[in-house]
Design a protein that fits this description.
Strand content: 15-25%
Mean pLDDT: 90
Number of domains: 1
GO molecular function, one term: phosphatase activity
Largest sheet: 7 strands, mixed
CATH class: Alpha Beta
Structural class: alpha/beta
Protein name: Shewanella-like protein phosphatase 1
Radius of gyration: 22 Å
Distance between the termini: 74 Å
Cofactor: Mn(2+)
Order of helices and strands: HHEHEHEHHHHEEHHHEEEEEEE
Number of helices: 11
GO biological process, one term: secretory granule organization
Pfam families: Metallophos
CATH architecture: 4-Layer Sandwich
Low-confidence stretches: 7-27
Number of strands: 12
Length: 362
């Protein structure tokens, strides 16, 4: 009898402790309590941000990999009328999605992110929004892997001190770590999924919010796989930052890969997938699977093209999807649109526009 009473008391205490734990902010996601990486006292609301059901009734502009090229970025933003001549946000009711890979290869990654963070604040006043997605090169920097960093960037923005740059990205209190770690790797807007690398049947077993959270947790775990997780490695080729098998193979095995794509889209109740990461040799946005799959890494950065920028962007407006290609030249006499940029080089470009309709064929 005494033994039974003791059991009841222990059971009561266990339930009381569990219930008390469930009332804490950190219990919004039970995985966080199992994971020993995170100090629960330091959790903030950014761990619980939801990116799986964003509704937007205005125009959407999506930009692919920038790789340190502030000139291509500003050409796109000026051409799409999102910023004015003074580089302030002017677009009304527009959602801008940048699909990751701002850093590396080029020089101006730090300036670009500071500029985009500024635009995030300004856009709100115009009933607009800027969503920045984490790319694999943001992840590489957060993990202290600097093999793709342009030495000029360290010289110009980090006092030519690699240790200072390391602290800025890898230390949890570093300037860029604090901001980049919050970027979502995957976002769903209306019926469109945006992610940097891509999706596959394995990772798509998880929800968007789980993918975002667990990718972040692995980076915060010194980029090592997380305990208590069956998927294991979110920073591998199976994770959304790096998954490029579909993008690389869809030009050659379109029927097979599109079948896989539609299975994944059905899982997320989506119709379109927009990815970067896989550079398009044509320097134009790639479209596959009856215009449901868009590859928007056009290799735009002038740092990877001997000084020639190839800016492109995806425009979604009034249920119409268009790929916009900007043909950019430096001419004294410009028969097209002339754009003077507020960039370190202060270059004036002659810009010719080419648009391609990408709505699905019914």
């Amino acid at each position: 009898m005494i033994f039974k009473k003791a059991l009841y008391i222990l059971l009561f205490l266990y339930i009381a402790i569990v219930k008390k734990g469930e009332s804490k902010p950190g219990s919004k996601h039970p995985f966080l309590f199992k994971n020993l990486v995170i100090d629960k006292k330091k959790l903030d609301s950014s761990y619980y941000n939801k990116y799986d059901n964003i509704k937007w009734n205005g125009k959407i502009i999506a930009i692919g990999d920038i790789h340190g090229d502030i000139e291509s970025l500003k050409l796109i933003l000026r051409h799409s009328k999102l910023i004015g001549e003074n580089d302030n946000w002017i677009g009304d009711n527009v959602l801008l999605v940048q699909n990751g890979d701002v850093f590396d290869r080029g020089i101006y990654g730090p300036i670009i992110y500071n500029f985009l963070f500024k635009l995030q604040k300004e856009a709100i006043k115009k009933n607009s929004r800027v969503i920045l997605i984490m790319g694999n090169h943001e992840q590489l920097n957060l993990c202290g892997y600097f093999n793709y960093v342009n030495p000029k960037e360290i010289e110009m923005f980090f006092h030519n001190d690699a240790n200072y740059r390391y602290h800025s990205f890898v230390n949890p209190y570093g300037e860029y770590h604090k901001r980049l770690i919050r970027l979502p790797p995957m976002v769903k807007v209306n019926n469109i999924i945006f992610t940097h690398g891509g999706l596959n049947l394995l990772i798509s077993k998880l929800s968007i919010n789980d993918i975002n959270l667990k990718t972040r947790l692995q980076i915060e775990n010194n980029c090592k796989p997380i305990k208590y997780d069956s998927f294991q490695n979110y920073l591998s080729r199976d994770g959304v930052l790096w998954s490029d098998a579909m993008s690389r193979n869809v030009p050659y095995y379109e029927k097979e890969k599109c079948s896989e794509l539609f299975q994944i889209l059905d899982k997320y109740d989506a119709k379109y997938l927009v990815v970067g990461h896989t550079r398009q040799p044509s320097h134009q946005i790639g479209s596959y699977c009856n215009n449901h799959y868009f590859l928007i890494d056009t290799g735009m950065s002038l740092f990877t093209n001997y000084g020639q920028p190839y800016p492109n962007y995806l425009k979604i407006d009034d249920h119409k999807i268009k790929a916009v290609r900007l043909i950019v030249e430096k001419k004294k006499k410009c028969p097209h649109t002339e754009i003077q940029l507020n960039t370190p080089n202060k270059i004036k470009y002659c810009v010719q526009e080419s648009q391609t309709n990408l709505n699905p064929v019914l």
